[in-house]
Design goal:
By secondary structure, the chain is of the alpha/beta class. The protein has a single domain, classed as 3-Layer(aba) Sandwich (Rossmann fold). The protein has helices at residues 15-24, 35-40, 52-61, 65-73, 83-86, 113-118, 199-216; strands at residues 4-8, 28-32, 43-46, 78-81, 91-92, 106-110, 127-135, 151-157, 159-163, 169-175, 177-185, 188-191. Helix 1 links the parallel strand 1 and strand 2.
């Protein structure tokens, strides 16, 4: 039987699109808000669309912070998508006073007005549509296996993370200025872009994740 991947349901995000894309990539998927299921799953995916502060509140109210932290402590294969990347950090400009998971040191910031004024007319916030990613210091992660540099992925966001540890940056993307579009550490990978909306390359990334889960099971 294929190892189980838990897609964390905290009522924020395109859960079914993520679930279907993971199934297409070869996974057995459970969309769940059960702490027990998340603890027992072989891999955990945290998707998300919406506000940082509200997401943190919902994760806490559903008692999901503990199971997620255990995922990282046990080095279980983890995939964060969009808001699921931002929530790994300590705080966000979007929601002052609200704490993230704090797994990674750093903050989440909004694309600045100064960058908008100094760049081409096509620069709009939110950053929405296809854009390229280039490899960063952590670009050798197995999650990016067989994915070249300067390939296109699909983005929808107004905020992006600034990791304290630059060596965790797996990819960077140019939009007004360069920003961190994914991070990698051990069996953790999280991206600002949406692999489930990114065609063949997105499916390749998800297959890499599913393969990592299978190898660790």
């Amino acid at each position: 039987m294929k190892p189980l991947i838990a897609v964390v349901d905290y009522e924020m995000g395109n859960l079914h699109s993520v679930g279907k894309a993971l199934q297409k990539a070869g996974a057995r998927v459970r969309i769940t808000s059960s702490p027990a299921v998340i603890r027992n799953a072989a891999g955990v995916v945290l998707p998300g669309v919406g506000a940082f502060g509200e997401a943190g509140k919902r994760l806490r109210s559903k008692r999901l912070f503990g199971p997620l932290m255990e995922t990282f402590e046990n080095d279980k294969p983890f995939l964060g998508i969009c808001l699921g990347l931002q929530l790994l950090f300590e705080r966000s400009e979007e929601s002052a006073g609200q704490k993230g998971l704090g797994v990674l040191k750093g903050k989440v910031v909004k694309f600045s007005a100064k960058a908008r004024e100094s760049s081409v007319k096509q620069f709009k916030v939110p950053h929405m549509g296809w854009n390229t990613v280039s490899r960063g210091p952590a670009g050798s992660t197995p999650f990016l296996h067989d994915i070249g540099s300067e390939n296109y992925f699909y983005f929808v966001h107004s905020y992006y993370p600034i990791p304290v540890e630059a060596n965790l940056v797996a990819t960077e993307t140019l939009y007004g200025s360069r920003f961190c579009s994914s991070v990698a550490r051990g069996r953790l990978f999280a991206c600002q872009f949406h692999p489930e909306k990114s065609g063949d390359l997105g499916q390749k990334l998800l297959r890499n994740y599913v393969r990592e889960v299978a190898l660790c099971s």
